[in-house]
């Protein structure tokens, strides 16, 4: 009997927290003070930490903001409502969003100035084709010095501001529709959503609340986070600022064993680094157990396959003595890039199969009465508004997506008009119009489904590269264009947290209108200040010095796929290996489903294959085993997951407090040195 089966863990996660029956707005005067606090306190700290250790404040800054305002309210004999706390949390998320760096979209300028000057981009011919609306050319930057206050940077700044406005509008488009589909029609569990929602309710507790355990768990996590943050972030940051040399009690970002263990005779081409970031340990307790075990399967598969592939002459780019980032890059271009693409296609096909089956049966008129009723009920649920919740009509959210997608394409047409006579360099708008309205909705649904099932998502890089190549455009400029290719899984999770906390949708719309102007100004000013303090990358920022070269190599490799002449990227893409990954992934899903085993294993395995943090996977496994073998037996599955999620939020807040204190001292010390006092 072919029935659609859910893993037992999925329902357990959905039962962790139920949405309330009553919803409130939550917006008020407190939000104005919160926007100023985020813009001028949290944003600079997050940018600095992104450069220093590779991760900004992220969720930590969100919870630090919430804690501060909650404590101020209590000292004033008031209590923040759950909805107010969520809006503070949501606003902090806007402030610290970004790409390469966390600290607002403006912080992308710091990466742009590095890329145009990097040896990787220059040697592959990419730097010379970086357009004026991304960054000035190398000569202009060297002439002006480390500052954005020049005419040459005006175009890139205006481009990023306009792009951010379109992105924030787009947030309420396809992402909202997918949230309604996955949360209310498919009723997926969203295992990571209760992390934020449970912590919000913990901070909103009054003295008379019946569940004080939430605040105790949050406090415990906060103390652990403060202590660990003081050692991991505080000591190296402060000593580097005041003594000129960082004292690192724990290696940042990792301890690299690859050159020591990976030799031609013993474990060739095997990447191994050990991370000491305790965040991975707690994440291992939070994530579904079998998803973490799947990550271990992927990591072990990498370690087992690499020596065989090297001896078989497949991993030809690896050389003895390579460190972990170079090993990962060489293995990626030789084999794992293609394998991962095949596995992602397998996930794509397996995720779409149940939906396609239902549609085909409907067309052929062979639906069972139960399925017919389910399909009608699903469509009714999708288009029915819950006015108490403040739902947007689905047609309006879809219209927003149409508007934003067309806006992206019009911006590209304006920025890339090409030669008026020959048409060379003209943006292929017709091709990407189909791309926006065919591919994007499909892959967005897959990622939203993965977010709802395992709290993670996957990307299909082959489709992006193929789209650029098949469009017929020649040159690297298209890689910087705002193609409508967005990941809506984060938006889907945020809307689910919004529902779990009982916050009306219109509350976050007000927050968007308030926060964006303040955050744009503050992000720009502090990017300017931090760039003036020291070159980026440099010894002052250990993560960027270690990893940004790899990121520049990867980006430049991809950009060569649309340039004239031979393309290193096309040489790295092996379609037979893509096929092996596709077939293997489908077989694995089918086998696990047939045996009734968790399909989380396959999702986790994709994440574990040849990824940058093998040591992070190992810490996650340790955390998962502690949770499964001890904590779950002691407290039971439901209580254990609730406890650990609130502890994780508290740990993030504690890390944020230590990080912010350290960063504040560093900025003061460096600023005083810069101005000569």
Q: Your description of this structure?
A:
This protein is an all-alpha fold and 677 residues long. Helices cover 68% and strands 1% of the residues. The protein has one domain (24-668). A two-stranded antiparallel sheet has the order 1-2. Helix 8 packs antiparallel against helix 17 (394-415), helix 10 packs parallel to helix 20 (489-500) and helix 14 (289-311) crosses helix 25. The relative contact order is 0.19.
Characteristic key phrases:
27 helices, mainly alpha, globular, 677 residues, 2 strands, two-stranded antiparallel ribbon
Topology:
Blueprint lengths: L7 H7 L15 H24 L5 H17 L6 H14 L12 H10 L1 H5 L14 H7 L9 H17 L3 H12 L7 H11 L9 H31 L11 E2 L1 H4 L11 E2 L3 H9 L2 H23 L12 H41 L4 H15 L10 H22 L13 H26 L6 H10 L18 H12 L4 H29 L8 H18 L8 H5 L2 H21 L4 H9 L5 H22 L1 H39 L2
Antiparallel strand pairs: 1-2
Helix pairs in contact: 2-4, 2-21, 2-27, 3-4, 3-27, 4-10, 4-21, 8-17, 9-16, 9-17, 9-18, 9-20, 10-11, 10-20, 10-27, 11-27, 13-26, 13-27, 14-25, 14-26, 15-18, 15-24, 17-18, 18-20, 26-27
Report the C-alpha radius of gyration, rounded.
25 Å
Number of domains: 1
The side-by-side strand order for the widest beta sheet comes to: 1-2
- How helix-rich are the residues, as a percent range? 55-70%
Relative strand content:
under 5%
Biggest sheet record: 2 strands, antiparallel
What does the overall shape look like? globular
Point out poorly predicted stretches.
1-7, 365-373
Count of individual helical segments? 27
Can you give the mean pLDDT? 77
SSE succession: HHHHHHHHHHHEHEHHHHHHHHHHHHHHH
